[in-house]
Amino acid sequence: DQSLKPQIAAPQLATNNPTLTTVALEKPFCMFDSSLRPNKSYVIYLYVMKASASAISSLVTNNNSKPLNSTFLQTRGGQLGPYKAALFNVPNCASPPKFTDVGDVNKASDVLKQYLFRVGDDGTCLYDPNFLAVCNPPLAPDTTYRFKYVLVDSTEGIMKDQTLWSDPIKTRRVKLPLKIDTWPGRRSGGMIVITSILSVLVFLLLAGLLASVSSAVMGSEDSSAETKHMSQTIQQSEPRPQLSSE
């Protein structure tokens, strides 16, 4: 059904989606069933294109219906046209992953890999000279992209079916350092300044209080010593009674 198009993954399965550099999509379960033929081998190609790219350059096949092998670098990250970001097997519509298994820690990762594909998930392939597979490098932050799935006959190497381009999906914007909230309770900048001033005042108050207590204690010790000294002096100065001789 060519009215179908890639969809962003459900938030229950992919939190924080999109991120700054990735977009998690649902894999094309049951999208191409009508185009599959017995005893044939098929694969899915995923193409990525910036939404700002020209509609004229949005074709993903040549005149012979062969899918393009344009890369991220050749298209300037999708700016000049679509690039191939992934190649994977056709999802099994007869036995899709069980969403109930997502709650199982031992099965959750495998279920998500079967159900989702994360575009932009490979941060090393562009700079690895020995990397020969399809490169899926990080997307650009604060940028709108479109995505397309293509069904390819592995034997003939030609396209058999394709979806429409997805709706525009935008990656997240980088936050400025001053706007990053690192305090619990989402305190504003003004509250942070006030809190800092109050902390300094409390420190000074405690320091003054400790100084006062220390001074009072030392003054008390000096007074006690002085009183003791005076008492001894008085005792020494008092005349002793003389014994009368008989």
UniProtKB/TrEMBL annotation:
Biased composition annotated in UniProt, kind: Polar residues: 230-246
Keywords, ordered alphabetically: Membrane, Transmembrane, Transmembrane helix
Record's GO cellular component terms: plasma membrane
InterPro entries: Uroplakin-2, Uroplakin-3
Native species: Burhinus bistriatus
Any Pfam family hit: Uroplakin_II
PANTHER family associated with the record: UROPLAKIN III, UROPLAKIN-3A
Lineage: superkingdom: Eukaryota
GO biological process: urea transport; water transport
Transmembrane segments: 189-211
Full protein name: UPK3A protein
Region (Disordered): 222-246
